[in-house]
Design goal:
Layout lengths: L9 H13 L5 E11 L3 E5 L5 H15 L14 E6 L10 E10 L1 E7 L6 E8 L3 H7 L1
Antiparallel strand pairs: 1-2, 1-4, 2-3, 5-6
Length: 139
């Protein structure tokens, strides 16, 4: 979401980490119940209803980012999905279809550096979401 860069721009990562620490959101549940393919060779899971809790989290994150030096990088909208496979040669054009729902509780979010044209990733920041689970963990 923060663009393609040659290397890892430290000022951009620092700004993103400061913004991430300002996000206040509760843990939430997500459910994905459709399988489809994105143009460009990605097999993905999607949610039939647009996954409202994830959209609400995105609005909270976008609000913080919009008041930061990262504002130019904030897209107007997102397409909630989980990428299962990214491979132009092996992902066929798939008609979207319903699947048995797959879901989980989202308790954190992370900033990940995806190295260009490599299958390598680096976690640059990690933030916990608040919620009922926090109260149980404190007991």
């Amino acid at each position: 979401m923060l663009g393609d860069h040659d290397g890892l721009p430290k000022p951009l990562v620092d700004a993103a980490c400061r913004a991430g620490s300002l996000v206040r959101a509760q843990a939430f549940d997500v459910t994905f119940d459709r399988l489809s393919a994105f143009d460009g060779g990605a097999l993905v899971l999607r949610g039939n209803n647009g996954i409202p809790p994830l959209q609400a989290f995105w609005r909270a994150l976008a609000s913080v980012l919009s008041d930061s030096p990262l504002k130019p990088y904030v897209p107007n909208s997102i397409e909630p999905h989980v990428t299962l496979l990214r491979d132009k040669a092996r992902v066929p054009k798939v008609d979207e279809r319903s699947i048995e729902p797959i879901g989980w509780r989202v308790r954190e979010f992370v900033l990940i550096h995806s190295f260009l044209r490599q299958d390598r990733y680096q976690v640059c920041g990690r933030w916990q979401l608040g919620g009922k689970d926090d109260a149980l963990a404190a007991m």
